[in-house]
Amino acid sequence: MSLNKQFFSEYLKWFIAQYHTFVELSTPSYAYKIVKRKENNVTGEEKFVIQLTNKKVFFELSPEKIVLDEKMLRGFSPLDIRTITYYACKKMDLDKIPKKESPITRIYRVVAQVFSRHSKQEMITLENEETGNVISQPVQTISNSPEMIDKMSPKDAHLVGFVAGSEVATKDTCN
Questions:
Q1: Do 91 and 123 lie in a common domain?
Q2: Which of 24, 117, 135, 157 is most buried, taking the most CB atoms under 10 A from its CB?
Q3: Maximum distance among all Cα pairs of the chain, rounded to whole angstroms
């Protein structure tokens, strides 16, 4: 009987190690992460200390400058993007944001947001306003698709980013 218990114990250890390896490999990595937020008490200026992921390289940028650099913004996790946009919107005059040369046609509209018990994740249902087709996908999939986000209204894109960031924060605190 003890031989079976020992075999089961070893198998369970191996399985847990394989699971942790799988989780590490399947977790998306981002180019940047926020280390801390600094505020100058005299000027009231806020800056983030940013680290290049897995490097000992740090630099400071204001949230307003990060938000204006779309390529850089995509290098942050959804939770960091939520934090950056919150602090940027506190100070930024939205009328001063430069408009893009070619207007982006809004194609997708968020029609529903639900929690799927089966897949244990938030699902967003989008309607293609040109064809009328309706698709339902995990919020993380939509959030990680710049092509889809670019074809949404700012309000819908903000909702997707907020829900994705909240989901990541909830998973981080539960683990």
A1: no
A2: 157
A3: 74
Residue 9, token pair as written in the block: 């114990």
102 inside domain: no
Tell me the backbone φ, ψ of residue 137, rounded to 5 degrees: -140, 160
pTM (whole model) above 0.70: no
Residue bearing tokens 């399985």 = 15
Phi, psi of 86, rounded to the nearest 5 degrees: -60, -50
Q: Which domain holds residue 73?
A: 32-96
Is 11 among the domain residues? no
Is the alpha carbon torsion for 92, 85, 32, 68 positive or negative? negative
Q: For residue 57, what pLDDT is reported?
A: 92
What is the pairing mode between strands 58-61 and 108-116? unpaired
Q: Are residues 79 and 113 in the same domain?
A: no
User: What pLDDT is recorded for position 133?
Assistant: 92
Token look-up 């959804």 returns 78
Residue 146: name the closest of 108, 98, 94, 90 by CA: 108
Start-to-end Cα distance in the chain: 34
- Output the pLDDT for position 174: 67
Query: In the chain, how many domains are there?
Result: 2
- Mean pLDDT for back-to-back runs of 10 residues, the chain (175 residues): 77 85 72 90 87 90 89 89 86 58 73 88 91 91 89 88 84 66
